[in-house]
Specification:
The chain has an eight-stranded antiparallel beta sheet. With about 475 residues, it is of the alpha+beta class. The longest helix is centred in the first third of the chain and has 14 residues. Bound molecules: flavin-adenine dinucleotide (FAD).
Length: about 475
């Protein structure tokens, strides 16, 4: 039996890989559950968007699963979990594969569990919906909007990411200006997950219990269903507003977020020269000017226009937000959140990025300081959102990368000046800083749900198997 168990520690420092014999035995035990073991396909599926980071690009080079398994329903997941647990073969779950930190890159081979085929909307009722984990966010809204409800927030990867991947790997997004972050109490109603115990079970976490598995990178359970609160839907307008100077735009973004009477869904501040990289929108992006991208409910347009006028802004584009089932127009939200970085990377692969969280109440002062300090080396892009009951912002700065040491210096300077950094250049959960939801509970829950440490091994650094 020993030859079917994991082999010794990999020399790269990754957790041990399963032996070839264990993989052969697993394939035989999968029965009719579909899987792919063509190494080229497996390698491709084992990647996410970690290449944004020159550091992760080096660290994760060549890491891949041994096979991709495509369960069709929860019973398949229980079967795969049981067979993998028996052979001590790791499992990493893949949703849409749009994570940014190599969260779903298997460090120790084993199974990449592609749950995208488990994707039904289970039910919808006023203000609440339940979905299978592989449901794409866009498909959820396509089903929910005709009933008068929509997801409270979604990442800018709405068109490709899954609901399971969002709660396991994401943080916030379009809608956060009203509804805050995923980590806020009430943002996720319930999770159903499969454990990797000797006899795997499906268990339900409700209310505050969801914190045990929220943003845990799938290190302590395979999420099979997600129950989410929904928001009343609106006809949305999207707009670009241009400003002569950066701080005037920043103050407008803050004021728009704080305008309780204006229903907004997105307030994004982007300093020049980032807009110069948004090629398809260039006619709406005057040279040298800072822009704000906003989504506003149609009935709020009149007060929105008044605020733009009062703030000396110029609306350069205003149009209905494209319907989710209309692929012919790229929605403006695909220039916000971490899509802004992507738009720049499409043209200039030498840049990278940072993620930082400003202090509510002091955010504009801190933003002004960093803008003055770093200029074009750290190009500012801020997402306004509700934090701790106030309107504040985080930033996904586009950084002109020179050396890892300079990047560390920039991070240090932010931290020394009270700006928290959520480091996007690490795949270790605990090294993410403020994004960790509830480290102690997550570790304790891993001891219960994954006693052999087989779920996404190498990502939770505090994990030590029980003797
Ligand atoms: P994956 O990348 O497949 O997985 C993410 C993590 O969750 C992995 O650790 C994976 O193992 C785990 N996982 C996936 N499914 C399950 C499951 N069923 N059970 C247990 N674990 C699971 N993030 C934001 O929060 N807001 C944004 O606005 C945003 N914008 C982005 C823009 C771009 C261009 C890119 C590339 C990324 C962006 N992200 C953003 C990051 C990412 O898209 C989101 O986190 C997204 O929600 C991930 O969903 P996914 O289905 O692709 O998950």
């Amino acid at each position: 039996m020993t030859s079917n168990l994991a082999t010794a520690q990999d020399p790269t420092g990754s957790p041990p890989r399963p032996s070839p014999a264990a993989i052969v035995a697993l394939k035989a035990a999968l029965g009719d559950i579909p899987f792919v073991d063509d190494p080229a396909v497996v390698r491709l599926r084992s990647r996410d968007f970690f290449w944004y980071s020159p550091i992760l690009k080096e660290e994760l080079r060549g890491k891949a699963a041994d096979l991709v398994v495509m369960p069709r329903h929860e019973a398949d997941i229980l079967h795969v979990a049981r067979e993998c647990t028996a052979r001590r073969i790791p499992i990493v779950v893949r949703g849409g594969g749009t994570g940014n930190y190599g969260q779903m890159v298997p460090l120790a081979g084993g199974v990449l569990l592609d749950v995208s085929g488990i994707n039904r909307v289970l039910w919808l009722k006023p203000g609440l919906g339940r979905f299978e984990a592989g449901a794409k966010l866009i498909d959820i809204d396509i089903t929910a909007v005709p009933t008068g409800w929509e997801l409270r927030m979604h990442p800018s990867t709405k068109r490709t990411a899954t609901i399971g991947g969002f709660v396991a790997g994401g943080a916030a997004g379009v809608g956060s200006i009203r509804y805050g972050q995923l980590r806020d109490r009430g943002s996720v109603a319930a999770l159903r997950l499969v454990t990797m115990e000797d006899t795997p079970r499906a268990i339900e976490l409700r209310g505050d219990e969801v914190r045990s598995a929220l943003h845990a990178y799938g290190t302590n359970g395979i999420i099979t269903e997600v129950e989410m609160p929904l928001a009343p839907t609106w006809p949305w307008t999207e707009a670009i507003i241009a400003f002569d100077d950066f701080m005037t735009a920043a103050r407008f973004a803050q004021a728009l977020g704080e305008s309780a009477g204006i229903v907004s869904k997105l307030v994004t501040l982007i300093a020049w020269p980032i807009p110069s990289y948004f090629k398809p929108l260039r006619e709406f992006l005057p040279d040298g000017r800072t822009i704000v991208i906003a989504m506003i409910a149609v009935p709020s347009l009149e007060p929105f226009h008044s605020l733009v006028k009062e703030s000396a802004g110029t609306i350069t584009l205003e149009r209905p937000t494209p319907a989710d089932d209309d692929p012919s127009v790229i929605p403006l939200y695909e220039y916000t959140w971490n899509h802004s970085t992507l738009q720049v990377l499409k043209i200039d692969r030498t840049v990278t990025y940072l993620q930082s969280i400003f202090v509510p109440g002091r955010n504009l002062e801190q933003v002004e300081h960093m803008y003055g300090k770093f200029g074009d080396e750290v190009m500012l892009h801020c997402e306004f959102q509700r934090r701790q009951g106030r309107v504040s912002c985080s930033a996904l700065q586009v950084v002109r990368f020179s050396t890892a040491e300079r990047l560390r210096e920039i991070i240090r300077y932010h931290e020394e000046n009270g700006v928290r950094i959520s480091n996007p250049h690490t795949y270790i959960l605990e090294d993410k800083g403020p994004k960790i939801v509830d480290g102690d509970h997550q570790l304790a829950f891993k001891h219960l749900a994954d006693p052999y440490g087989l779920m996404n091994p190498g990502k939770m650094s505090r994990w030590v198997p029980a003797p």
